[in-house]
Amino acid sequence: MALDLSGLASLGAPRQRSIARFPWHVALLALSICAVGVWNLASASRSSHVDIWITQATWMGVGLVLALALVLVDYRLFRQGAWIFYGVVVVLLLVVLWKGRVIMGARRWISLGPVGFQPSELAKIAVILVLARWFSTDRESDPRRGPRGLAGIAIPAALVLVPALLVQRQPDLGTALITVAVGATMILFAGVRWKTLVVLGTAVILAAAAAWPHLKPYQRKRVETFLNPEGDVLGAGYHASQSMIAVGSGQGFGKGWGQGTQTLLSFLPEQHTDFIFSVWAEEHGFAGALVLLTLYFALVGSGVTIAMNARDRFGQFVAVGATSLVFWHAFVNMGMVTGVLPVVGVTLPLMSYGGTSVLVVFAALAMLASVGTKRFAN
Amino acid sequence: MALTPSTPRGDGATRLLWMAGFAALAFLVLLSRLYQLQVLRGEEYRVKAEENFVKELRVPADRGLVLDRNRRVLVDSRPSYDVVLIPYFCGKGCDEVVTRLATLLSFSFDEEERVREHLRTARGLVRFRPFTVKVDISRDELDVVEANRIELSGAVDVLPTPHRSYRHGIWASHLLGYMNEVGAEELVRLNAEIEKAGDDVQPYQARDFVGRRGLEKRYEKDLRGVDGIQRVVVDARGNAKRESDLIPESQRFEPSTPGNNLVLSIDWRLQEFAEKTFPATAGAVLALDARTGFLLALVDRPAVDPNKMAGRISRAELAAIRADPLQPELFRAIQQHYHPGSTFKVVTAIAALEEGVLRPGGTVYCPGRYTLGGHTWRCDKDSGHGQVDLEHALGASCDVFFYALSDRMGTDKIARWGSLLGLGKPTGLDLQGEIPGVMPDEAWHDAHQPGGHQHGMSLNISIGQGDVNVTPLQQLVLYGALATGKIWRPQAVLRIEDPKGDVLKEFAPDVRGTLPVKPETRDAVMKGLLAAVNQPFGTAYGMRMKDVVMAGKTGTAQVVKLGLKRLKASQVSYFQRDHAWFAAFAPAEDPEIVVVVLNEHSGFGSSNAAPTATAVVRKWLELKEEDARAREGVQRPAVSPPSAPPPPAPPPSPARAQKPARAGAAFTDGGRRGA
Predict the structure, then answer these.
(1) How far apart are CA A40 and CA A22, in angstroms?
(2) DSSP readout, A5-31?
(3) How far, in Å, are B101, B194, B215 from residue B190 at the CA level?
């Protein structure tokens, strides 16, 4: 797998056109969410009296630089590096299982000098790239080839499941689920036979039933709680019920910035990470939630448009992967906060506090923008 | 592996549209969920959010005071601090918190176990309720707890709680009663009663204290007051926060309403004097205002300290109290049976006079014993009193005289008059647990004694032995009736006042009946009672006072059957010694005060009960004089001289001169039998 540097060559020449084609609306939407996110974090961190919004803003600055760098590189370079990147990430996942730092009962972090980061976040990017690469080979992109059967999706499925299972071992159910969801979206996009889907669906249900006894007690409890949230308000249902109280009590227009009592008085655990949306919804009400929802939907819609107009199959798959990453994160997170989905540790893109998460989302959006820049001219 | 231009139109485009549609649907789901939570159910969640952070602290109401008749404070509430624990707020860390508390407040093993037991068993909502860990901590302990507030976590709270202070400890404690913490089942029951009654009364809560005995229990509703509420902001761990502006100013504090005050008829100066003067280990000193039927003093021993009973007593101390053979928890004045002994002879005398068995002035010869059907009854004076009339018989307490009367009358007539005079049923003092006593007639004996009624039993009854049983309070009412002609319902509370001092309820004197006897009968008995104190042959002659005439009767109630030989008190074990009685009133011509003294297991009434009674009477008269001086600012003679002719109950000296002849004739029969 030799590194094909031809992509670099095309970097300089069409710059004029590139700037014109750059999907500015994606950047605008992303930065809007960033601004809302930092503002919201400033409120969420009032009770702890630590100015984490500054840290978050700094990470966003770093993310912007990274994104700029990624946009400037022709994304076709990623295609060439996809396998290598994937391989490195899998190794890192093994390393983190072997000798990672244990934080809150999970082994998710490894140290790179002074900075700690979570390889599981990179796994999502790795899966996007490797699947895009897989589906853009000549054989896979033959237009005469119909929807795939079981044999056709076995390898891409394995490519998704290997890192996902490693992540799940940490254990980090949220990230593992997102990885699987992103991978599944891309495979579905590539085309799968209906019959195969039915067979797989049945298999997944059976597998879930079989896996149930092997889940960690807290994970099982969360699912049980989701199925019956009123059953244990003080125990496992605490997160769910408190976040629903926070969201609901925001009512139409919210309590105002910094006025959320659930936030201020620490009734919400993880209020600046996984439950950040409840802070926003409590303080800005249904109106605020609607604005944020619209921003995310617009971002996802832009992603779909970019995928639609992608110049090549690799770019198209990258766009689909990146967009689905944003979508699944947003949907699962907000669904969990509002009690539509069980509580799993999934961050809200650009709203939740956390450096690695910010960088990964910026990276995904940069790849998306990169695909958009080199779209077909209409 | 060349780069292949893709064809995004076609299948890919369709799938993308499907996916976009799915995303739109997903966002629509979120949107409708948000609409449901925030718009449709927003109000409900807003209330829940407020309940989350608003912690309601009770501001306990000051319980009403108990005052004596001169408004001297007997019972009040003093500020104190209780330590409570809310298990929910410490969760798994509770064990450690308790360990820390135990060290800081030096818990006993019992105390620590009690708290741990609660932590183990508390479930559900109970975990949110404050649990009293320690009551009434000292100032030092308060400082220690405050200094360690952070380590103890928000679960530990120090609540200012007014604690009941019985200023004079065990004095009058049976009357005053005591309080302690409401039990879990009792709480449910009390609140059910409140709800059923539909009164506008605040329900009880855990940690509340309720009146347990005496006036505290009887007037619980009046004394209680209404608790206030203080609302504070707390965070998820229960720590109070400064952001009080989250609660509207008008809702932050609801003040408490103090309870109403009780003004007793007790004169504490007299009570205090009686408490100090009364030498007994066990017994009672009762003083009644003869003109109103209100109690002036009520000494009752032994007693338990109500300050301790209010939750500050250890299990060991409580067990010791329960095991004490003297039964300190027994309210003797209304809850214990005693033989009235010779004090009962007034009843026998009245029955004999009213039934015509004894004519005024009639005499009996007393040789020191009385024989009936082969059995011999002893007189208290072995050598005999000789020929005695009623005055002498009551004054010197001759038993044979009354044996003779009862021999002629039988049990039923004595019982009939005893009942008419109020014996055998409660006096009606408005406190729980009064027992009726026993005034046995023949039917009673048939029902209760093996072998049924025997005629000889009437002899025992005639001198207050056998199966006749009275409470000290019944004695007080009986002698009050002899003194004034009125059978009073004794009362201890003059009025109920609100905290400002306005009278809410005034208790009027309550006469249950009049003494149902002919004036001559009363005069004849009165003469005997005067003789007991004022004649040289009287059993209480040593008690006479120079400036005031007292009438009274001693009594020595046998507890066990007499042996062949009369023994001194010191020769008999405590519980076999006789009870000493003295019942008296003064001034005899216009009685103001009635006093009954019972000194359990002390021996003779004349030597062990009469001195206290006399001292109490004297003190009362002094106090009256003192009060009069204070009121008028001028000096006045304390009491009318004994020579002054008392209009309502004139000592029937003229009658005395003409009666002996007739009486002597009437009683030759009785006298013969006595001989």
Answers:
(1) 29
(2) THHHHTTSTTHHHHHHHS-HHHHHHHH
(3) 32, 6, 18
Architecture of domain B268-316+332-674: 3-Layer(aba) Sandwich (3.40)
The pLDDT, as a whole number, for residue A4 is 45
The domain in which residue A171 lies consists of 22-373
Q: What pLDDT is stored for residue B426 in this prediction?
A: 93
Is A13 inside any structural domain?
no
| Mean pLDDT lowest among B89-103, B123-137, B199-213 | B123-137
Domain boundary assignment for chain B: 179-212, 268-316+332-674
Q: Is residue A191 one of the residues assigned to a domain?
A: yes
In a domain, A14, yes or no: no
Q: What is the pLDDT of residue B666?
A: 36
Q: Choose from A138, A243, A249, A312 for mutation: most chain B CBs within 10 A.
A: A249
CA of A92 vs chain B CAs: smallest distance (Å): 27
**What φ, ψ does residue B182 adopt, rounded to 5°?**
-70, 140
- At A141 the three-state DSSP class reads coil
Q: At what angle do helices B519-534 and B345-354 cross, to 10 degrees?
A: 150
Lowest mean pLDDT among B56-60, B136-140, B590-594: B56-60
Can you give the pLDDT at residue B667? 39
Contact A249 B26 (CB under 8 A): no
Q: Is the pLDDT of residue B672 over 50?
A: no
- With CA atoms as reference, the chain A residue closest to B17 would be A304
A378 in a structural domain:
no
State residue B563's pLDDT score: 52
Distances (CA, A) of B337 to B329, B413, B473, B604, B655: 15, 22, 11, 18, 38
B40 Cβ under 8 Å from any chain A Cβ: no
Please say if the pLDDT value at position B444 is more than 80: yes
Total domains, chain A: 1
Q: Cis bond leading into B519, ω under 30°? A: no
Phi first, then psi, for residue A88 (nearest 5°) are: -60, -45
Nearest to B44 among A47, A248, A282 (CB): A248
The pLDDT, as a whole number, for residue A341 is 85
Q: Give the residue from A77, A145, A243, A245 with the most B CB atoms within 10 Å of its CB, the best one to mutate.
A: A245
Q: What is the pLDDT of residue B294?
A: 96
Report chain A residues whose CB lies below 8 A from the CB of B233: 265
Task: Identify whether the C-beta of residue A45 lies closer than 8 Å to the C-beta of residue A258.
Answer: no
pLDDT tens-digit map of B108-125: 888 888 888 888 887 766
Flag if A281 and B38 touch (Cβ within 8 Å): yes
Cross-strand pairs, B383: none
Cis peptide before B587 (omega within 30 of 0): yes
Q: How far is the alpha carbon of B154 from chain A, nearest alpha carbon, in Å? A: 13
Please state the separation of Cα A115 from the chain's center in Å. 21
Q: Is B424's pLDDT higher than 70?
A: yes
Q: Strands (DSSP E) along B515-663, which ranges?
A: 551-557, 579-586, 593-599
Specify which of A77-86, A233-242, B552-561 reaches the highest per-range mean pLDDT.
A77-86
Tell me what pLDDT residue B236 has.
Answer: 65
Could you give the CA distance from residue B233 to residue A81 in angstroms, rounded to a whole number? 57
Distances (CA, A) of B58 to B208, B230, B263, B347, B487: 11, 6, 28, 57, 47
CB A375 within 8 A of CB A21: yes
